[in-house]
Amino acid sequence: MKKLLYKEMKLSANPLSYWFIAFSTMTMIPGYPILVGSFFICLGIFYTYQQVREYDDITYTVMLPVRKKDVVSAKYLFVLFIELIAFVLCALLTIIRMKFLGNAAPYVTNPLMNANAAYLGYLLAVFTSFNGIFLAGFFKTAYKIGKPFILFCVVGFIIIFMGEVLHHIPGLESLNDPANLSILQVAILAIGITVFMLYTWFSYKKALKDFEKINL
Known about the structure:
Strand content: under 5%
Radius of gyration: 18 Å
Number of helices: 9
Largest sheet: none
Helix content: over 70%
Shape: elongated
Order of helices and strands: HHHHHHHHH
């Protein structure tokens, strides 16, 4: 598995999957829908799967002395690797923004989403939708990427829209506090972590079953 994961990272991966991690820095931009950065991170991963399809990487990989389930596992681990790096970077920038820049005028007067614990929860929700919709959808056929990606785009932007709307609802203003944690923020983050772990796991198990049925 270690060698197969190394192959995913060095051979199968499109360089844009790594470069697009840089969109995590959108966390620091005031007056901008910063959660869109999570979409671009997923878009970077999508480019890898586009390359996988064009180069017929799946057929090549299953011809190696590996089990079919290991093929799915390696590709899921690669995606989780990218998402983990992006999340950690976003979390670090969020801490910097809240602790040292939380009272800066551009953030205090920002009408759009501020970087805080709730933002990180929404970020995980977008990653969850990518894993559950696009990844699971890809392994139904191991080559169709258009429909599952479009479905992810729809769901992903609904999450982004809801994240931008919720803190404008009376009583939920603390969701957008630029400098202080709130119970609501922590709740959103906790839900995001839980749903990400569970839904990604169920998505992975479904992908294993679907991929085993494919006659390559």
